[in-house]
Amino acid sequence: MYSLSVIVRTICDVFAWFLAVFGVYVIIHGHLTPGGGFQGGAVVATLFAFLLVAYGGKKFIPFYKSSLFSWFETVGLLLFIGTGLVGLGTTFFYNFLAGQGGLFGSTVPIGPNSGVLNSSGTIALMNMAVGVEVIGGLSLILYYMFKGIRLYEESGSEETGHDR
Amino acid sequence: MKRQVLFLVALIIVVGTLWGGLSRIHQFGDPGAAPMDDYYLHNAQAERSANNIVTSIVFDYRGFDTLGEAAVLFTAVCSVLVVFRKGGHN
Hints:
The complex is a heterodimer.
Chain A: H1 6-28, H2 37-55, H3 57-63, H4 66-86, H5 122-154
Helix pairs in contact in A: 1-2, 2-3, 2-5, 4-5
Chain B: H1 2-23, H2 35-48, H3 53-61, H4 63-83
Helix pairs in contact in B: 2-3, 3-4
């Protein structure tokens, strides 16, 4: 896949970082606004699809650190399970932080309100863990599939890499 | 001929089961008794102090389900890596 024209690359330079900031906003405000870890992670993973389409594989593959995003995925899943396990004194996935004061522990007024970011206990932590996992997972799927296409094209459009 | 008879029997069973289920479904716009929904709507904000009740259901009340979804994503990445890996069988 070759890089697209300079117009597309300039638009990508300008708007890709807004895309990343919007995705992180959706993840962090998951307990206040529609969205959450899965949706925000998918928005951030769109950034990598955008970069791949605009810049092509020759620039994208050295830029994309696949081991780092593999760590993202593993750490996100382990953080999610770990947050569930910490509440095991009561039940699995018990919300031990909500309403206790401290980290994510503020209480919210009942009924419609403008939203308190420092609320909802483990829900916010799990949103962030799932967001990190989805960023890693979806961008890794994109990366592996693109490398699979390259493998297919380099072998003379005949599949020799898998079956012998 | 035997295959057609078997097909007819299977069709009658499937259509009969679906029809029997659908004829007993609640009216459109009238969900009937929903004590669980009412509990979430009235108590979720006080118990879990999150404004977004959907998130508090998905990540707290039904957290185990979300664990399954996260595991599905992990499995998807593993299987994509296996399918698109480089090299042969050995």
